[in-house]
Write a structure and sequence with these properties.
The protein is mainly alpha-helical. It is 67% helix and 1% strand. Helix 9 runs antiparallel to helix 12. The chain starts with a helix and ends in a 14-residue tail after the last helix.
């Protein structure tokens, strides 16, 4: 509905976002241009929810912050795409209107939908560019890195999709324990990025992060099973797709927790902001008022996607050469590499260790970091599968089973001699 000139501006922004979907330019220059223009659009859209500190764009803004350096290193600089720049200008113009028209729920939803379309276009372009690089053996390693970059933009798209499905969250009117959980997840995501993005990795933070991801996945599995038992979710999808992927991701996070526990020093405490955010998240996650309604399921979907971003941050931490761990833990991991990796035993590897025992932090040898990187990559793959399967938490494709009456088929000569067999059985709820 077009009521004011501001609505026309939002409509133009949406049309420009749809135009991005038709763009088939997958060159390095186009990808850099889209990435550099995408983050300002997200920031402009977040102003529609001011003065809220947590809004549907909070987690997406953290993803933007997390990929900034990787985008510069792996794709390169570039001027913002002119269409995205125009979208940003339109959104800012409407948000700064004197009558605060951006507070209207319909216009908040319009801005959210425009960002969803733009994010989908950016993710698709990055994915196609990465696929082209992977075809050539000389550019395959860089293509794999850019693939990971594209997957993070896809996770931002999943977050926006979830908020669009939850109308109360999209318009900033949601209340209750489910909204408290969503806010706690966004707050935890922000603190985790503060501690790990462009910072020397702290094994204690990574240990708490692994614990938080385990809690999110296990609680999601618990409430999803309960929702399926009550008939709120498709039982077949939950038990054959969602729960197996959640279990696989939980196993991987268990291994990550064991690794960081061995490396984390035990003589000093956890950074205070991390401890506060993780405690707030734990309280919201285990609130006795949480039910299996749609609001809670939307929040759990955001929780599973948050574990994917955490896995990306863990992967970034293992790539850093300044990653250090407690000497006794590094020594144990070095021995584990000897036991698992053929040909790894080498006196030179032991010489890389500054010491073999004690709580002091020492550098991690390159072959050990390579093994950590392999584990982090598997952890990310499992978390990504769980996030994909968590779409069933939205319940949009769930149709309650209702009795139907059969319709007699016409017994014509053509039907009797047809090769079309009986309709195959489908799982309940499909």
């Amino acid at each position: 509905m077009i009521d004011t000139p501001d609505d026309l501006l939002l409509l133009e922004a949406e049309h420009l976002a749809r135009d991005l979907l038709l763009d088939v330019d997958d060159s390095q220059r186009a990808v850099a241009s889209l990435l550099n223009g995408w983050e300002p659009v997200i920031r402009a859209s977040a102003t529609y929810y001011a003065p809220q500190t947590v809004n549907p764009f909070s987690q997406v803004q953290e993803i933007c912050r997390g990929i900034r350096r990787d985008a510069r290193d792996w794709i390169g600089p570039g001027r913002p795409d002119p269409r995205l720049d125009r979208i940003r200008q339109l959104l800012e113009d409407v948000a700064s209107a004197p009558q605060a028209s951006g507070d209207l729920p319909r216009r908040q939803t319009s801005a959210l939908h425009t960002c969803y379309l733009a994010t989908h276009a950016v993710a698709g372009t990055i994915t196609r560019y990465a696929a082209e690089l992977r075809q050539d053996e000389s550019t395959r390693p860089r293509g794999l890195l850019i693939t990971a970059l594209g997957s993070r933009v896809q996770h931002a798209e999943q977050i926006l999709d979830t908020h669009l499905c939850d109308r109360a969250a999209a318009t900033g009117t949601a209340v209750g324990p489910a909204q408290a959980l969503s806010d706690a997840i966004a707050g935890w995501d922000r603190i985790l990025h503060d501690a790990l993005v462009d910072q020397t990795p702290d094994p204690r933070v990574l240990l708490v992060s692994a614990n938080a991801s385990l809690g999110l996945l296990r609680r999601t599995a618990e409430l999803a099973s309960l929702a399926a038992a009550k008939g709120h979710l498709d039982s077949f999808n939950v038990h054959t797709r969602l729960l197996p992927t959640l279990n696989a991701a939980t196993d991987r996070w268990d291994r990550a927790r064991d690794t960081w526990r061995a490396l984390a020093p035990i003589t000093t405490g956890i950074p205070h902001p991390v401890a506060v955010a993780s405690h707030t998240l734990y309280q919201a996650l285990h609130s006795p008022e949480l039910d299996t309604g749609s609001d809670t399921r939307y929040a759990l979907r955001l929780a599973v996607v948050a574990t994917v971003e955490a896995a990306h941050l863990h992967l970034q931490a293992t790539r850093r050469s300044d990653l250090k761990g407690m000497a006794s833990g590094v020594s144990a991991l070095t021995q584990a590499v000897f036991d698992q990796v053929p040909g790894a035993r080498s006196l030179n590897l032991w010489r890389q260790l500054e010491r073999l025992d004690g709580p002091a932090l020492i550098s991690i040898p390159a072959p050990v970091r390579t093994e950590l990187l392999r584990q982090a990559t598997r952890n990310l793959a499992a978390a990504t599968m769980a996030a994909s399967a968590s779409h069933s938490l939205l319940g949009n494709d769930f149709r309650p089973v209702r009795p139907t009456h059969g319709v007699a088929r016409p017994k014509t000569e053509a039907y009797l001699h047809s090769s079309i067999g009986p309709r195959p059985l489908s799982p309940t709820g499909w």
